[in-house]
Fold this protein.
Amino acid sequence: MNPKFIILASEKDIAGKNIFKHIHELGGVNHYLIPEDSIYAENIDKKFPEGNFFIFATKHKSEQERKTFSIHAPGNFKKAELGGKDNKVCKTSAFFLKHLFITLNQEAKDSDYECTLEVTHHGPYLEKPCCFIEIGSSEEQWEDEEAGKIIARTINKAIKTFTPNQKWKAAIGIGSPHYCPNFNKIQLNSELAISHIIPNYTQITQGILEQAINKTEEKVELAILDWKGMKGEERQESVKLLNQFGLKYKRTSEVKEEDGNN
C-alpha cells in the first residue's frame, strides 16, 4: 500500500473541529472540514479521488465519560444503526492502524488520557480504506485544546513516518468487548498488526469472518481470539469457522511479545 492520506473532520463535531484546527496549524497534510456528521458521510471518498486512505478525526461519546483517545475501523457486522450499510465493513490497513496506535501512545504518554482500540463499528461506508481516531468521551474532553493537539500531532507524525514493517503480520481480532484491553497490548507489544475486531456481542458467521478478512488491505495471517470474553458456543463456532477458512488462530493469552514469527 502506498497511501495518499486525507484527513476529514465534521463542522458539526466539537472534537473534530478542535483536532482540525491543530492539524491546520501543523500543516503539511491534506485535511478538510465536511458539513455532515462523519458517521453519515457515505461514500465521501468519491469526493476526494486523489486520496486512497481516509482518516476521520472525531469525538467519541460514552456514558462513562472516560478520558480516552481511541482508534478503530468503521463498519457494521450487522444492521447499520449509526451510518454505513447493513452487514458491510470498510476496508482498512492493519499495518497503518498499528503504526497509528503506537504513535498515539507515544504522543499521549504524558497525558491523563487512556489510549485504546475499539471494535469495528458505525459508519460511514467507503470503498477506500479508512479509520477513525477520536477524543472521548464528553464535551469537556472534546473541547480540550491539549487533547486536540495530541491527536493532531499523532495524525501528522503517523502519516509522515509510515513505512510498513516487514516483520509485522496482519491479524483480525474476535470476541472483544467494545474497548479492547487485550488487543491493545498485542497491538503495542507484538509483531502482529490488528485490523478489524469483531465484538463479543456479535454472533460470528462465515459472512462476518469473510468481511473482516477481505476488507483488510494486507493478507490476514492469523485470527486472535479474546477467549475469556467469549461464551462457550462462540468459541466453538469461531474455531469451527476458522478451521474451515484454513486460518491459523491464537488466544490473546497465547500471544507473546514479539510474536508473529511463527
